[in-house]
Amino acid sequence: MSDLALHIPTDVIDGPTSLVAALIAALLIGLCVVRARRGLDERLVPLAGLATAFIFAAQMLNFPIAAGVSGHLLGGALAAALLGPWLGALCVTVVIVIQALLFADGAVTALGLNVANMALIATFCAYGVLVLALKVLPRTRWGLGAAVFAASVVSVVAASAGFVLQFWIGGEEVGQSFGAMAAAILGTHVLVGVGEAVITAGAVTAVALARPDLVHALRGTRLAQNPRTLKEHA
Amino acid sequence: MSGADGLYRPGDSPLHRLRPQVKIVALVGFTCAIAATPREALWAFGTYALLLAGLFALARVPAAWVLSRSLVESPFLVLALAFPFMVAGPPVHFGFITVSEPGLWAGWNLFAKATLGVWAALLLSATTPVAGVLAGLSRLRCPEILLQITAFAIRYAHLTVAEVTQMRLARLARCDDPRFLWQASALARSLGVVFIRSFERGERIWQSMAARGYTGRLPLEVGPAPASALQWGAALSAPAVAGAIAAWTAVIA
């Protein structure tokens, strides 16, 4: 499981589906560039570059799931929580392109599919869940942690559901066993998602405690302080 | 994955000397030809493999390196192994095991095409340095803003990866050895610290760029070099052969 990525290789999904996915992905990335630039202006290049370098390094960090089994982050939820959906999706896209061209991970013809699943679906689903959860949950350390946890699980499962959908449209005809295959893929990714969620929630809470202004999901508000630290301030 | 150098292997073969934009176009063409070949055309896949093996030999890339790097696709090989049991169709018997014939073809198709696709991509990453790939993409009219972000990301990924490695060593030196997920909180917190450092570094870099008159575009007037017709011809001969084989097998089938 050390390198269980979702990078789709050559011709698992047929040509027309890949082409449509590539077109949709290209359009959405164009939109991401426009929206990310609106918030950052000329700061976009250095900040997005450094954020991408961070996501890249975060993906290299292996964390234990159970004794002897480890996984690594996909980073979609992490990017959505810290950077927002537009900049976050942009950074994960750049990471996927680097992996396809410099590490031969994922086929060049499946780049659109890979970007659609791991950068666009994962990041935007995570952000949607995060925004909804933060409306309900209190803005405390645990509230934020729980919201990020839910967002991470959903993002990983949604990315794998994206693959299942693409496989249903343009993959091998598997007939009756499609349900079993979809269940196996989604079930595995619920487990991967829980691992991702623990690490992501821990990382985002750590940032929120030290520099709440850097957590995009908090939109500039601070975490509610617990009574003990208030007393110390007084 | 070590650092952000990619899988580049320095060398001075004819493949190393080809312009990167030519190699990128050749890779896309070759991968499309692989994808378009019908699964029953076994000899076509054999020819592609021989062609790629010849190119690897020309680039002086050892076979062991290629094979160890091919493991990147292993999760999908599980799917390839599952196909013979999942796909419906006339059964074939192997001793005790009964599998379906179309399923076997589907598994073979996935295995062969994924492996050849990875090999073709490895040929590009082994013979082209990171800066070369970016220059090639820029010649191919890839949006400049994405290339600038990528260039920054690759440049600073070295630093960020070094920070992550350093923190891991520090945790190990303090006997942190998480075996289960719920013990990994130190790992998550150090990830948070790396993010804060990266973001603050990004702001500092932007400030120094602004101090030097940066207004949103890099003052690079020297574009990457164009490729000669000879280079285009040489590089595109491989995907042309593959495309011809793909078209031939598709017509025969």
TrEMBL record, chain A:
Keywords, sorted A to Z: Cell membrane, Membrane, Transmembrane, Transmembrane helix, Transport
Pfam families recorded: CbiM
Q: Which GO terms describe its cellular component?
A: plasma membrane
BP term (GO), one: transition metal ion transport
Asked if the Swiss-Prot or TrEMBL record annotates the protein with the keyword Lipid biosynthesis, the reply is no
Where do the TM regions start and end? 20-37, 44-65, 77-103, 115-134, 146-169, 181-210
Q: Where is the signal peptide?
A: none
Protein origin, superkingdom: Bacteria
Concerning PANTHER family, the annotation shows: METAL TRANSPORT PROTEIN HI_1621-RELATED
- Name of the molecule in the record: Cobalt/nickel transport system permease protein
Automatic annotation (TrEMBL), chain B:
Task: Please give, as recorded in its UniProt entry, the membrane topology of this protein.
Answer: Multi-pass membrane protein
The GO annotation for biological process reads: cobalt ion transport
Keyword Hydrolase found: no
Report the locations given in the UniProt record.
Answer: Cell membrane
Q: Report TM segments.
A: 43-67, 76-96, 116-137
Q: Which UniProt keywords apply?
A: Cell membrane, Membrane, Transmembrane, Transmembrane helix
**Mainly localized where?**
membrane
How is this protein annotated for GO cellular component? ATP-binding cassette (ABC) transporter complex
Establish whether keyword Membrane is in the entry.
yes
Question: Which is a Pfam family this sequence falls into?
Answer: CbiQ
The superkingdom of the source organism is: Bacteria
Which InterPro entries has this protein been placed in?
A: ABC/ECF_trnsptr_transmembrane, ECF_CbiQ, ECF_transporter_component
Q: What is this protein called?
A: Cobalt/nickel transport system permease protein
Q: From what organism does this protein derive? A: Glycomyces harbinensis
